[in-house]
Specification:
By secondary structure, this protein is mostly beta strands. The protein is built from no helices and eleven strands.
């Protein structure tokens, strides 16, 4: 059973920074794609950033230039560095991993709360 464990959330003032971590119980090379989603109160979960094992990186427009996704292969860990945080970034952030074979399977972490407020 794949486990994804997020950490690093918290309360930060507008303009501040946080780094989220997602530790996977299996090699991150075993996933076709890994990334981050978020869900604000009363809103649907939305995709934030992701990378594929082919090496492509993608970000939603509202976080481009502020957020950076990266990985440490040796630690089986994916990171989301968040800079210049805004109140609208407040949400529960979820780590996601996808395998396409033998069937398409999504794995999710438990989520970590990020609150941006003065």
């Amino acid at each position: 059973q794949v486990q994804l464990v997020e950490s690093g959330g918290g309360l930060v003032q507008p303009g501040g920074s946080l780094r989220l971590s997602c530790a996977a119980s299996e090699s991150i090379f075993s996933f076709n794609r890994m990334g981050w989603y978020r869900q604000a109160p009363g809103k649907q979960r939305e995709w934030v950033a992701a990378f594929t094992n082919g090496g492509s990186l993608n970000y939603r427009d509202s976080v481009k230039g502020r957020f950076t996704i990266s990985r440490d292969n040796a630690k089986n860990t994916v990171y989301l560095q968040m800079n210049s945080l805004k109140p609208e970034d407040t949400a529960v952030y979820y780590c996601n991993a996808i395998r396409d074979y033998p069937t398409h399977t999504d794995y999710w972490g438990q989520g970590t709360q990020v609150t941006v407020s003065s």
